[in-house]
Fold:
Amino acid sequence: MGIEPARAGAWRTDDFRSTDFASAFAALFDGQAITESDGLQISLPEIAENGAVVPLTIDSTLSGIDKLYVWVENNPTPLAAQFDLSPNLLPFVTARVKMAESGYLRVIARQGKNWLQTRKWVTVVQGGCGSG
Structure:
């Protein structure tokens, strides 16, 4: 399955349904090669006092990035956000995400036909998805 060109502009509500991380991730990327990249930077606190409002900034000096996905691996709905970007601009996104519990926040970026990722562990003191 994977990401097909016909889906590129479509809003996929199924991608945001509650499920476990491994199943949701596999359904969206279908075994596509995803490479670790130090060209993607994510800034967020190492310790989040309140998981309901965890500030996040994603930026990169890599050109050609047209899509970003934000995954919170231990959330009931692990896909937290999807951003469609112009590949002519350098990506810079700031947002707040909810984190139910401590775990990895992972960012996946599409750069042409390549998929890149980076992730960071966040310790959540008080959960933000009803588990606090």
Remarks:
- Residues 21-29 form the longest helix (9 residues).
